[in-house]
Design brief:
This protein is mainly beta and 225 residues long. It has a single domain, classed as Porin. Helix content is 8%, strand content 67%. An eight-stranded antiparallel barrel has the order 1-3-4-7-8-9-10-11. A hairpin with a 2-residue loop joins strand 10 and strand 11. 32% of the residues are buried.
């Protein structure tokens, strides 16, 4: 996962550098922008689970990540690949997608005292976020790109006997300050908000409503041509 993301980031940088001489300022009609988003940052998350006939169960935490940022109950903070098309001057239409998979082993002593590796419960999930945006020029080489849309998230944690599945919809908003050291390529950093609209968590026959929220300060890369 980490190696693949690093290779994707370097490939993105090479692609936009190759096209740098032909690139215009970000936001020109007809441009295609490719991004590696939420590659590193700080995220504050919270969830509220409402069991049938029971009291709400609230949890929250902070996640700090560099390339890997999936230590949260939802997939909001994981790195994403983004594609946006400039349909008009400053107006973008596109989206982002991210996927993660986690697995691990732990040493466990047997009845005879011999230690062996035991697989721990795995986890995987994805996020899909279609969006619209608008690019606001600040100065030469600096733009502010606001984006918003609906985010769908889904994650599954393996269990015995039943897996735990979480999915839902959220309202997503981002404000990225894009700083371009060279034409056609920039660093982007800014606040990200994912505010849960609806969701469910299911384990076996038990199903509960869940609302998930994430507020972060995240950074990544973007190139356009």
């Amino acid at each position: 996962m980490r190696k693949a993301l690093f290779l994707s980031v370097f490939a993105l940088a090479g692609l936009v550098s190759f096209n740098a001489s032909a690139a215009d300022e970000l936001g020109e009609p007809g441009q295609l922008a490719l991004g590696a988003e939420r590659v590193f940052g700080v995220n504050l998350w919270s969830t509220t689970v409402t069991p049938d006939g029971g009291d709400d169960i609230n949890s929250s935490g902070t996640s700090v990540g560099l390339v890997w940022n999936a230590d949260t109950p939802t997939a909001f903070a994981i790195p994403r690949f983004a594609l946006d098309y400039m349909v008009a001057d400053g107006v973008s239409l596109g989206g982002s997608i991210g996927y993660y998979s986690k697995s691990s082993k732990a040493d466990q002593a047997t009845a005879t005292g011999v230690e062996k590796d035991v697989d721990q419960p795995g986890e995987h999930g994805f996020v899909l976020a279609p969006r619209v945006g608008y690019v606001i020029p600040v100065t030469d080489g600096v733009d502010f790109w606001v984006r918003g849309g609906i985010t769908y998230f889904s994650s599954t944690m393996e269990g015995d006997p039943d897996d735990t599945e979480v999915s839902g919809l959220a309202l997503g908003a981002e404000g990225a300050l894009v700083v371009s050291p060279i034409a056609g390529f920039g660093l982007q950093v800014g606040p990200t908000i994912d505010f849960g609209l609806s969701g469910t968590t299911k384990q076996g026959d038990a199903e509960s409503d869940v609302t998930a929220r994430n507020f972060g300060l995240n950074a990544g890369l973007v190139g356009w041509f």
